[in-house]
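Let's do one together. I've listed all components of the complex below, 555 residues spread over two lines.
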Amino acid sequence: MEMLVAAITVFVLAVFVGFEIITKVPPTLHTPLMSGSNAISGITLIGAVISTRTDNPKLATILGVCAVAFAMINVVGGYMVTHRMLDMFKGKR
Amino acid sequence: MGGFKIDIGWVNLAYVVASVLFINGLKGLTHPRTAVRGNLTSAVGMLLAVVVTLLANGLDYTWILVGAVIGGLVGAVAATRVQMTQMPEMVALFNGFGGGASVLVAGAAFLIASEPDAQMTVSTGLSGLIGSVTFTGSMIAFLKLAEIMPGRQLGFPGIKAFNALMGLGALGCVAWLTVDPTAVLAYWLIVAIAAVLGVTLTIPIGGADMPVVISLLNSYSGLAAAATGFVLMNNVLIIAGSLVGASGIILTRIMCKAMNRSLTNVLFGTMGPSADGPSADDVYGGKVKATSPDEVAMMLETAQRVLVVPGYGLAVAQAQHIVRDMANILESRGITVEYGIHPVAGRMPGHMNVLLAEADVPYDKLREMDDINNEISQIDVCMVVGANDVVNPAARTDPKSPIAGMPIIDVDKARTVVVVKRSLSPGFAGIPNPLFAMDNCLMMFGDGKKALTELVHALKEG
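Okay, and this is what the predicted structure of the assembly comes out as:
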């Protein structure tokens, strides 16, 4: 129970931080914001990596490896496409 | 979850640093100048979090590498090949993979747990539920945006009751899982029901509402990651997930406001064309004035301030570059050219800005709707290219119109308006636009790119 409350505390505070920052992002950058936050949601990669431990049931490892692939699409694709877009906004004037 | 080669305390500390890097990275996105660095900061945070996680004992590195290479390659190819016009469908697809990853990780964690407690089972159930809805919902959104599936509203009689029943069924399974934490079947049942739900919730949503749907799915993919964080009791997952969740919710709200619709109305309502509204003949009857590129060129040459109001039609016609050429010529003659961007001008939040940035339009020329509306009476010539509903004054003047109350760019208050458009056909809302019949409005009929190319020729010769 104690751990759950701690986790909920972190969750609620992070949502507030998110609201504070994201409301300041100008509409011009909303598409890169979406693809960039897409990349961040690829953080599930961490959970995927942990699921592949060899002393886990085989099925868990298989699920974990698939999850690694899925999350990596998000992470690599998300950061790269965001970079590509932001480069177009940079300094051409 | 122990078993790290270094003390778990250090791992968690590294996760805190990664979280700070994510937050700082998003903060960088508050200005185009700092945005590239922000994105890199966020990527460094991700790298750090992954590297310390790889220090855990007994990981199957070979298979991790296989998964990572496949996923990385797919992501890299998609990111380099995608056209800027296709950005909405790619973001939809990525949202889906994020949700899918959460389903798999929560499923694996559930298999691993020897004696799952209530807190774990509830969060596993929610993770599977949100993740699975995100996965199939995003796939449908992708298919609709890529026009593989028809973009119009689809469905069957009783779809709302069906969805409600499925939703209750899924929640029932979460309850089952809580009562009997060993019921692996219940978890996959949740995933299956949610997968169907993702489809049936998304197919009834029409093409015009897609910006809302992608934003919402973006939020879900974050919430799914946060739920997975609760399953694993991992703070960096919770923090990163909630940041994304918050971001998606804000964008959803902005999109809803820009269309003057509530989220419930977008998700469950239908927006049919109003039957009793004025007909096209009543509105246009003999009052529409057509113009030619030569005439518009002469008007532009004597203008001081020109405003371009682009809609998605501009991108469809691939006319961004020719608009930029026109602006270059006018600017070289000392005329100010700016762009008025409606929040739903593209097919996702900020889409039009990216399309114009790709055509080398400087970001400081892109003006937000509220901002430019304050100065619109000082605009000499307003060029509306491929936009319709977002400049329809009926939203302001006719309380019975289906778009009544929707914020619009008040182009009708500019001195002269030139609308570049194929015909008088209506936009997504399916209603006539009284702007076209106004005294200060001229219609330049034709394909956007062709008409503007002729205009550029006329300007060069003039």
